[in-house]
Design goal:
It is built from 7 helices and 11 strands. The protein has 305 residues and is α/β, with parallel strands linked by helices. It has 2 domains: 5-93 and 221-303, Zn peptidases (Aminopeptidase, 3-Layer(aba) Sandwich); 94-218, 2-Layer Sandwich (Alpha-Beta Plaits). The strands form 3 sheets. A 4-stranded parallel sheet has the order 2-1-3-11. The protein has a 4-stranded antiparallel sheet with strand order 6-7-5-8, with helices on one face. Strands 9-4-10 form a 3-stranded mixed sheet. α1 links the parallel β1 and β2 (35-40). Mean pLDDT is 88; it is low at 11-23.
């Protein structure tokens, strides 16, 4: 059997004790025939630099993993430690972010009588209603489904006018959408389809100055269920937890997107998130984290035996 290399990616830095258990994968002293790389990456959250949000803290969408694979951090396969409730995620959706803008006139309140239809926010009110008509067509399109999961669209933000100067009508308003795209649909196709929708809005509302901009394209990813990594995860999980892991499809984005584009087949498999806390966010059960580390160690042994 040819030696293989595996990269275990951690998105959330675990406790030192758990890290130690993960590293101690070969107490028997037998030399592995392959390499096990452990990568603690940053910037995996779904966010992007945009507008005035230009600092490094706004870099997301697998920024750390993209750096990893462009600086020598490649392997034959990857086990990605997203919290998946112990399920094996064979594929996940990607994300496309779209801005839709409307234009208006910049008019003093005192002179705005009879000109309300030139207010970009009120124009956006009509455009938003049309977008809400379109959303079910995207979510219900069989081409946008993946396995047993349908696509989703989120109205994520709206910006227009000046809170410090409401004596003027807003001349520009933006609507921001997060459009989930199945891993089986090329991003170029999805981009063309949503911009066709924007062009349709421009024809429906002439004179509103409607424009569209796609400013995030983060494709989804999938792995063949017959890949040796999946077999190793199944066997290791069963050994530690006493039963084979379930399968899952998620509609969140993961770093598998960047890794698979560099020829690194990647599976998302991790412990439970536990209860969500408003202030602290995700909470990981220590016992579950330790058991998952043991499962990871067994996967590395099986892959690099």
């Amino acid at each position: 059997m040819d030696p293989h290399s595996i990269v275990v990616v951690s998105l959330h830095s675990p406790k030192e004790k758990v890290w130690g258990e993960l590293l101690d994968i070969n107490p028997s002293g037998v030399t592995l025939r392959g390499d096990c790389m452990i990568a603690a990456v940053c910037g995996e959250i779904e966010k992007t630099q945009y507008g005035n949000a230009t600092g490094g803290q706004y870099r997301g969408y697998a920024a750390g993993s993209r750096y990893l694979v462009t600086h020598g951090g490649v392997a034959d396969m990857c086990l990605l430690g997203e919290p998946t409730e112990g399920k094996v995620v064979l594929g996940h959706f990607g994300s496309l972010w779209l801005r839709i803008g409307t234009q208006g006139n910049f008019i003093h309140t005192a002179f705005s009588e009879g000109m309300r239809d030139r207010n970009s926010i009120l124009r956006m009110h009509e455009v938003l209603a049309a977008v809400l008509e379109w959303i079910p067509t995207w979510e219900g399109d069989p081409e946008n489904a993946y396995r047993d999961a349908s696509a989703l669209v989120n109205v994520g933000a709206i910006a227009g006018g000046f809170g410090w100067r409401v004596s003027r009508t807003p001349h520009h308003t933006d609507l921001f959408l997060d459009i989930r795209v199945p891993p089986t649909k090329p991003m170029a196709v999805a981009r063309g389809q949503v911009l066709d929708m924007v062009r349709g809005l421009a024809r429906r509302f002439p004179g509103y100055g409607i424009e569209g901009e796609v400013y995030v394209t983060a494709p989804g990813a999938e792995i063949d269920e017959g890949h040796p990594l999946i077999a190793a995860v199944d066997a290791s999980h069963a050994e530690v937890f006493g039963a084979a892991p379930e399968r899952a499809v998620t509609r969140w984005f993961s770093d598998a997107s960047a890794l698979t584009r560099y020829g690194v087949p990647t599976v998302n498999y991790g412990t439970s998130t536990g209860l969500m806390d408003v202030e602290l966010g995700e909470n990981l059960d220590i016992d579950g984290l330790v058991k998952m580390a043991q499962s990871y160690a067994l996967v590395a042994q099986r892959i690099c035996a």
